[in-house]
Amino acid sequence: MSTNMKVNIAGVQWDNPITVASGTFGSGAEYSEFVDLNLLGAVTTKGVANVPWEGNPTPRIAETYGGMINAIGLQNPGIDVFVERDIPYLKQYRTKIIVNVCGRTTEDYCEVVERLAEQPIDLLEINISCPNVKHGGIAFGQSAASVEKITQAVKEKAKQPIIMKLSPNVTNIAEMAMAAEAGGADAVSLINTLTGMKIDIHRRSFAVANKTGGLSGPAIKPVAVRMVYQVAQAVNIPIIGMGGISSAEDAIEFMMAGANAISVGTANFHNPTVTMDILNGMQAFCDKYNIKDINEIVGCVK
User: Fold this and answer.
1) What is the mean pLDDT of residues 94-104?
2) Which sequence spans correspond to the domains of the chain?
3) Cα separation of 252 and 261, whole Å?
């Protein structure tokens, strides 16, 4: 049986519901010998800022039970290099291009979005887990008022549909999603990493120089599934679900909770072909249960 695997995210049709989490796949070139980028629904790039960011001091990655902690600090070469180098590379493939945008102020985000307005890309993912330097370092995504405000500001400048990437480090994730929707978001993606810490007991020091970092991997999956479900009950825009996905079963679980598409992150590091394994597994699942359209399972668990 041939299952329709196409999904529509904010008016953009993907060949299948699989993308990759920003920061885990570069801009595709690093994985091209393992993965046929033509077979991915979309490639989500590493975060892009208006100027180059050096990132945090090392060490900035540590393994932990069921996952990893990273405090990379969104190191990136900036928008000029990205436009010149990465977009032309990705345009060789038929996959959709999602550019992740980061910034320290609302103006930073808007500058990047304006620079990307005439570029041949499909969607923008706005990383609002960045610390807002004008408000004491609290992340944009940790206040509903801030979420709505920055969404509105970005939406006014954007030519492509915008996906607001939500932080899980909040009391009420549905409130943040509703604020993004109220601000004009075309879609939301969740979850970003959970704040975590690891201490090296032998050295009596923090495992990463930043002291805290973002916890990702299988350990966060149940939290991510719960948050995707809550957001799906609260908003009427598409959801890209992520957080610990490493198998077709995981991906299907997210879609049944209400995600319209899924994003694979940490699993890429230990299995570079994981996205293809997930795609094949999802197709096998659909064959087994006589599912003619992958969209049939979205939000089927109430």
Assistant:
1) 96
2) 7-297
3) 10
pTM, whole model, 2 decimals? 0.96
Residue of 247, 228, 262, 281 whose CA lies nearest to 19: 262
Q: What is the CATH number of domain 7-297?
A: 3.20.20.70
Residues with catalytic annotation?
130
Q: What is the mean pLDDT of the chain?
A: 95
Q: Are 1 and 9 in contact (CB under 8 A)?
A: no
In this prediction, what percent of the chain has a pLDDT beyond 90?
88
Q: Which two tokens stand for residue 179?
A: 């604020």
300 vs 256: CA distance, rounded Å: 5
| Phi, psi dihedral angles at 104 (to 5 degrees) | -105, -15
Query: Can you give the pLDDT at residue 140?
Result: 86
DSSP secondary structure letters along 160-216:
S-EEEE--S-SS-HHHHHHHHHHTT-SEEEE--PEEEE-EETTTTEESSTTSEEEEE
202: CB partners within 8 A, 6+ apart: none
What band does 152 get if pLDDT is binned at 50, 70 and 90?
very high
Q: Which helix (H) or strand (E) element contains residue 125?
A: strand 123-127
